[in-house]
């Protein structure tokens, strides 16, 4: 991808400017044009893995998501369209809505017609992108369309007002369509009702402090930023609705205060949750905060975080040889792709270009970049609403997210663990293991098979700690009478993980995985130590209750590389109530104290009294009982 020269005076951390964002948008749009149908209504990107919605829906996705990218680029340029992109999308609006069809797989010779919007159908999602794109480009596209075309497009979109969405962020798709149709004078009453209904539905998901769960009781992930905040705030901004923007903008600002700490010094977002193939869409909420004036971040920090994330992926192979975004993280990675995703799904990343709506003279583009929060100082930040503890270290820019509250489990059943939610920790430099012993997980072995974490019950998060309780599951059922109370404490780059296991039988084997590090080459060190590409090191040391330590090879690697190693502790439970404790570390810093220097004292009882100490004199006192935790910092 040809790009302008770097500007290290204006952007000392990334070298990137607004011109780099514009050039990237132009190149992404140019790369998809050869795959558009003759009438430009469908953009069928190559790939041998269609989504569960079928190839026609996937090709609509290609149209809709790239249309949003084009709209952000052109609206940000005041309507300038030197490449004639809007003409293509105008033709597509005409051809796609002439004869909508339920045929799914483009097998009938019709290469133009869009699928209809149905209950919980993917076309509803894409209608929202089309509606926002039309809203952004209205003076240059919609207002110039033939009246008959506007009528057909309006009728196709209006079906989103009457169809049932999934009970999660999907409530915002009829809202987005309704916002445009109301302004365009199409079915205004029903359109405004859809806006109100969408806002009412997501109110149930807001748990406070700017944190939403995505429909399920505890499904915290990147959908907070790129959907649950972005859509209401962008709608309120475009509608000029000051009271609505004040309400949802204040939530966004509160969210960004913590969210900004989840980007690594290398630009990477935390690798956690679903739809990770959307990659730099993780920056959309950052831009939305600045666009609407609802952000706690300095302008230089916003641009540094956003440009860092965009460059992070483009520098690491997110594009294939044809300039297309792949289904994956860096390169293709099928294991993190959900069945609802097709070849064009990664273009949800279009929302990352929301920053282009800010004019070239805006301070976010003109002020010098500032360091990311993870680059300024070592930070430990408790986020009690999602049950997370964010830990970052400035010398290596790594961010670790300790998870004691997000499990993505439905309210009425418990599904098998999703490794992108169920782990004790996630980071900006590691991905979960999909085969073999699990990373960042305590497992009891039942008939030789590891238990799962299941539903997570948060017990709190405070200064340097977070805790939860859970019931190990085997063969789809909770182990009768068994409860694990887990507590993570962090200091600097160090982590201490404490688990009080109650009710497990004597002789039950246990394993505990650390951070799985991956790259092109990995090397095992002494005890439970692994190193990837000569830089990233994972260590795990037993402090109490474990008997053996080592490393194991991760089959097929992780999203971060084909070669991966996992530090692993093992032991055997004596029965009754048992404490298992270990120290863990993920670092690129070779100048740290030995992990063995972390001290632990243990006094068993109905409530276990534990003392932790670090070489710098920091001490913590912990009281641990089944499903109850208290932590005190002594020094």
UniProtKB/TrEMBL annotation:
<dbReference type="InterPro" id="IPR016624">
    <property type="entry name" value="UCP014753"/>
</dbReference>
<feature type="compositionally biased region" description="Basic and acidic residues">
    <location>
        <begin position="101"/>
        <end position="113"/>
    </location>
</feature>
<dbReference type="Pfam" id="PF10022">
    <property type="entry name" value="DUF2264"/>
</dbReference>
<feature type="region of interest" description="Disordered">
    <location>
        <begin position="92"/>
        <end position="116"/>
    </location>
</feature>
<protein>
    <submittedName>
        <fullName>DUF2264 domain-containing protein</fullName>
    </submittedName>
</protein>
<feature type="domain" description="DUF2264">
    <location>
        <begin position="17"/>
        <end position="371"/>
    </location>
</feature>
<dbReference type="InterPro" id="IPR049349">
    <property type="entry name" value="DUF2264_N"/>
</dbReference>
């Amino acid at each position: 991808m040809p790009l302008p020269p770097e500007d290290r005076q204006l952007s000392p951390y990334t070298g990137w400017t607004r011109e780099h964002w514009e050039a990237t948008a132009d190149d992404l749009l140019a790369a998809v044009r050869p795959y558009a149908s003759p009438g430009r209504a469908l953009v069928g990107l190559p790939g041998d893995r269609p989504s569960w919605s079928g190839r026609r829906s996937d090709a609509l996705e290609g149209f809709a998501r790239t249309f949003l990218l084009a709209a952000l680029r052109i609206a940000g340029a005041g309507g300038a369209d030197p490449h004639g992109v809007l003409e293509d999308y105008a033709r597509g609006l005409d051809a796609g809505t002439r004869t909508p069809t339920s045929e799914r797989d483009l097998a009938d010779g019709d290469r133009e017609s869009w699928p209809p919007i149905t209950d919980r159908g993917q076309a509803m999602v894409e209608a929202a992108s089309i509606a926002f794109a039309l809203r952004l480009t209205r003076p240059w596209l919609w207002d110039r369309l033939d009246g008959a075309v506007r009528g057909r497009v309006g009728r196709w979109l209006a079906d989103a007002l009457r169809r049932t969405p999934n009970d999660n962020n999907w409530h915002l798709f009829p809202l987005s369509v309704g916002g445009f149709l109301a302004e365009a004078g199409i079915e205004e009453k029903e359109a405004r009702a859809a806006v109100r209904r969408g806002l009412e539905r997501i109110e149930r998901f807001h748990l406070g402090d700017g944190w939403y769960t995505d429909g399920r009781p505890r499904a915290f992930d990147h959908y907070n930023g790129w959907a649950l905040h972005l859509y209401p705030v962008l709608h309120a901004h475009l509608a000029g609705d000051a009271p609505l923007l004040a309400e949802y903008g204040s939530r966004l600002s509160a969210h960004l205060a913590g969210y900004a700490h989840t980007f690594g010094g290398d630009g990477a977002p935390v690798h956690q949750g679903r739809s990770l193939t959307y990659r730099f869409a993780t920056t959309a909420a950052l831009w939305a905060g600045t666009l609407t004036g609802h952000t706690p971040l300095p302008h230089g920090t916003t641009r540094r975080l956003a440009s860092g994330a965009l460059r992070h992926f483009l520098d690491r192979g997110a594009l294939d040889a044809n300039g297309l975004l792949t289904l994956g993280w860096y390169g293709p990675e099928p294991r993190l792709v959900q069945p609802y995703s097709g070849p064009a799904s990664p273009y949800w990343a279009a929302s990352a270009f929301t920053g282009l709506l800010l004019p070239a003279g805006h301070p976010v583009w003109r002020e010098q970049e500032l360091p990311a929060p993870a680059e300024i100082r070592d930070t430990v930040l408790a986020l009690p609403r999602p049950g997370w503890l964010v830990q970052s270290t400035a010398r290596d820019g790594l961010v670790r997210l300790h998870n004691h509250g997000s499990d993505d489990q439905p309210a009425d059943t418990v599904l098998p663990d999703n490794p992108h939610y169920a782990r004790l920790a996630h980071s900006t430099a590691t991905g979960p293991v999909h085969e073999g012993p699990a990373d960042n997980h305590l497992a009891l072995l039942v008939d030789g098979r590891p238990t799962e974490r299941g539903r997570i019950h948060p017990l709190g998060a405070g200064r340097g700690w977070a805790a939860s309780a859970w019931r190990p599951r085997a063969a789809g059922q909770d182990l009768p009478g068994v409860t694990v109370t887990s507590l993570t404490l962090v200091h600097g780059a160090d982590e201490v993980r404490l688990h009080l296991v109650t009710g497990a039988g004597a002789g039950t084997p246990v394993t505990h995985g650390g951070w799985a590090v991956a790259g092109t080459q990995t090397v095992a060190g002494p005890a439970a130590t692994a190193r990837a590409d000569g830089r990233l090191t994972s260590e795990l040391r037993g402090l109490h209750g474990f008997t053996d330590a080592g490393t194991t090879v991760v089959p097929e690697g992780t999203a971060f590389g084909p070669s991966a190693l996992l530090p692993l502790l093992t032991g055997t439970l004596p029965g009754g109530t048992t404490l298992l404790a270990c120290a863990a570390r993920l670092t690129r810093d070779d100048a740290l104290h030995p992990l063995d220097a972390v001290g632990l004292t243990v006094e068993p009882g109905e409530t276990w009294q534990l003392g932790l100490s670090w070489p710098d004199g920091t001490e913590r006192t912990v009281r641990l009982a089944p499903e109850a935790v208290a932590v005190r910092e002594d020094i």
